[in-house]
Amino acid sequence: MMSLMSASAIASPNIAFIKYWGNRDDQLRLPSNGSISMNLDGLFTQTTVTFNPDLEKDTLILNDQVADQQATSRVSHFLDLVRKLADVNLKAHVYSKNNFPIGAGIASSASAFAALSLAATAALGLELSEAELSRLARRGSGSACRSVPGGYVEWLAGQSDADSYAVSIASPDHWALVDCIAIVQVEHKPIGSSQGHLLANTSPLQHARVEDSPRRIRLCREAILRRDFEAFANITELDSTLMHAVMMTSDPPLFYWSPVTLEIMTTVTRWRREKALPVCYTVDAGPNVHVICEESSSEIIREKLLQIPGVLHVLSAKPAGPARLCQT
Ligand code: PMV
Q1: What is d(CA 170, CA 21) in angstroms, rounded to the nearest whole number?
Q2: In the predicted structure, residue 44 carries a pLDDT above the cut 50
Q3: 138 partner at 20 to 30 Å CA-CA among 10, 31, 119, 216?
Q4: How many other β-carbons are positioned within 10 Å of the β-carbon of residue 27?
Q5: Which of the following CATH numbers is that of domain 2-173: 3.30.70.1130, 3.40.50.720, 3.30.230.10, 3.40.30.10?
Q6: Is 65 helix (H, G, I), strand (E, B) or coil?
Q7: Each residue of 111-135: pLDDT tens digit?
Q8: How does pLDDT run across 56-99, given as a tens digit for each residue?
Q9: How far apart are CA 216 and CA 224, in angstroms?
Q10: 3-class SS of residue 9
Q11: Mutation test residue for ligand 1: of 30, 45, 143, 283, the one with most atoms within 8 Å of CB
Q12: How far apart are alpha carbons 32 and 261 in whole angstroms?
């Protein structure tokens, strides 16, 4: 029995091309709009969950350090959902480690809750379908539902807890895109996404952004399926800027860009327009820029990015597979 009570899983973070910003239901993390992303290979969270009858409370070790109260209680609340599913009342020890630096402009909550969902359910002997696992991961962090399936992924916004989950729309080898992440700042962002989502509806622009989202989703999905870089670039950049317009016009306003962020954005668009390079940008809730290009151009893009003053370094990631169980 004891061997069934521990399991380990690995999941990759993802970068959204059509962004999730704002919830229809904050508690269930039902998004205001659907989104599309790519899992990032070579970057991962590995998590081991061990349920133990001797424990009096859940414990969390994050990147080899005892986690703070806030992170521990977020994980503990999430484990309550898993305990309810399995109808058990055992506390757990969670050991989680990222192979990418915190604050590298990559949301670690996506890979963290995808890996935690898989490890915790497997530890209790639950066998969830991919859709069920994605729904569960969504409750920990919205974007985590997109780190459950592999490759290029669409989160179907749905109407309720039951139909809001992510599915793969193309495998990792469908299209050799690379995310060259230009790191301009390594400190933690002042307002995290969980808080940010709560502000989305205070922007007068959010309604228009959400209303137009089915069109952007369709254009992005079709561009990915056709491997049409020009169409993909135009809709990805528009969607990123729409999300930041909402952020900047919320109350209080959120400004995530630094001057270097804007410099990279305009430079990348110029490379595409003037030099015909297959490259575009997207920016999450922080100043680092995800520069997306075709693999054939990734080395030259990387070198050019490193020449821009203010770019500290560049991390590169190809499309990754789904969350999976692994050895401890
Ligand atoms: O899953 P969360 O709550 O970390 O929200 C993710 C928000 C963005 O990264 C800004 C956009 C997205 O769709 O990933």
Answers
A1: 23
A2: yes
A3: 216
A4: 8
A5: 3.30.230.10
A6: strand
A7: 999 999 999 999 999 999 999 999 9
A8: 999 999 999 999 999 999 999 999 999 999 999 999 999 999 99
A9: 12
A10: strand
A11: 143
A12: 26
Contacts of 183 (CB under 8 A, 6+ apart): 104, 105, 288, 311, 312, 313, 314, 315
Distance from residue 21's CA to the centre of ligand 1 (Å): 7
Q: In the structure, what pLDDT confidence band is assigned to residue 101 with cuts at 50, 70 and 90?
A: confident
> Which atom of ligand 1 is least distant from the CA of 194?
3
Pair 155, 31: CB distance under 8 Å: yes
Domain boundaries of the chain, sorted by first residue: 2-173, 177-317
What are the distances in angstroms from CA 315 to CA 71, 100, 327?
Answer: 26, 9, 26
CB 147 within 8 A of CB 13: yes
Q: Which residues contact 44 (CB under 8 A, 6 or more apart)?
A: 10, 11, 12, 13, 98, 99, 100, 111, 115, 320
Q: Which two tokens stand for residue 164?
A: 């809001």
Tell me which residue of 319, 320, 323, 322 sits closest to 115, measured CA to CA. 323
Within 6 A (CB) of ligand 1 lie 16, 19-21, 35, 107, 109-110, 141-143, 193-194, 197, 284-285
Q: Which of 29, 106, 193, 256 gets mutated to test ligand 1 (max ligand atoms within 8 A of its CB)?
A: 193
What is the rounded distance in angstroms from the CA atom of residue 107 to the CA atom of residue 284? Answer: 9
DSSP for 295-308, written as a single string: GGGHHHHHHHHHTS
Sheet with strand 91-98: strands edge to edge: 65-66, 59-62, 91-98, 45-52, 6-11, 324-326
What top-level class would CATH report for the domain 177-317?
alpha beta
